[in-house]
């Protein structure tokens, strides 16, 4: 057997790994300035995007009262229903106090809540049945009759 490497001259595993990896470039003042410029540019882009989003949301919020006032009754009911279904519980209560909100929205919520409860109950029963079937299949020896 031939020995290709003299163990006395062999480097440690960590130093071999370090040699394989590219050395980290030293931070020079020019590199630091370039990174600072990049950071400033990215911060400006983020602030600009945030500002645009804030202005967009403000424009929608400012226009919403006139939009709601311009709707007729057949459009108001589904509008308020959809808006409240997406809102958090606290916001849903606040929206429900709007003076132009039709009373029919309460009935729609009641129907939808009952429907969701019915679906959840059916899913729970199906999951319980599947669990019972899995336990029964596990307890029943499948290959006992084949022996």
TrEMBL record:
It comes from the Bacteria. Residues 100-136 have a biased composition (Basic and acidic residues). It comes from Pelagovum pacificum. This is Uncharacterized protein. Residues 1-33, 100-147 are annotated as: Disordered.
């Amino acid at each position: 057997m031939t020995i290709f490497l003299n163990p006395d001259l062999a480097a440690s595993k960590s130093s071999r790994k370090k040699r394989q990896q590219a050395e980290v470039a030293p931070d020079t003042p020019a590199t630091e300035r370039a990174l600072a410029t990049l950071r400033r540019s990215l911060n400006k882009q983020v602030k600009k995007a945030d500002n645009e989003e804030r202005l967009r949301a403000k424009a929608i919020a400012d226009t919403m009262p006139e939009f709601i006032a311009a709707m007729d009754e057949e459009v108001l009911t589904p509008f308020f229903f959809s808006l409240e279904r997406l809102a958090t519980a606290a916001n849903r209560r606040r929206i429900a106090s709007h003076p132009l909100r039709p009373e029919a929205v309460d009935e729609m919520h009641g129907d939808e809540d009952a429907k969701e409860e019915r679906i959840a109950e059916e899913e729970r029963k199906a999951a319980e049945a599947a669990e019972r079937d899995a336990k029964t299949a596990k307890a029943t020896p499948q290959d006992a009759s084949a022996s």
